[in-house]
Write a structure and sequence with these properties.
4-stranded antiparallel β-sheet, 1 helix, mainly beta, 3% helix, WD40/YVTN_repeat-like_dom_sf, single chain
């Protein structure tokens, strides 16, 4: 439906708008479905680390992504930068109570299509494979 004189559509879909209550924005799926947020900490932010590995399988789903948020460690299938991972469905999720993960890396030498080894370093100078 066109307006007179302007020729523009009246039924356009807005991605953001402002009201007196504030600004409303349409969030992308990856931002909307991300894991629980870490509570505010006045002493500083918790470090977030990301690790990638390629399993070289034939299905095209061979990339894995691991990242930590505070005391939680998440594992996902990585589908590339053009298609966001479904953050509501992790492959695995670990929550550590005593210490928090500070670094992690996949062992690229022993990777198979069935298993992946991940070395995790913790804040209490411990490590776990």
């Amino acid at each position: 439906m066109a307006t007179e004189g302007g020729g523009k559509e009246m039924n356009e879909i807005k991605t953001q708008f402002t009201t007196r209550e504030g600004l409303y924005k349409l969030l992308p799926h990856s931002e909307y479905s991300r894991p629980n947020r870490v509570p505010f900490n006045s002493q500083g932010s918790n470090p977030v680390r990301v690790s990638f590995v390629n399993l070289n399988d034939q299905s095209g789903k061979g990339d894995r992504l691991c990242f930590n948020v505070g005391r939680e460690l998440y594992f996902y299938i990585y589908k590339g930068f053009r298609k966001a991972a479904d953050l509501s469905k992790p492959i695995d999720k670990r929550i550590y109570k005593g210490t928090q993960p500070t670094c992690h890396d996949f062992n690229h030498l022993t990777v198979t299509a069935e298993s992946v080894s991940l070395l995790v370093g913790f804040s209490a100078a411990k490590s776990n494979l």
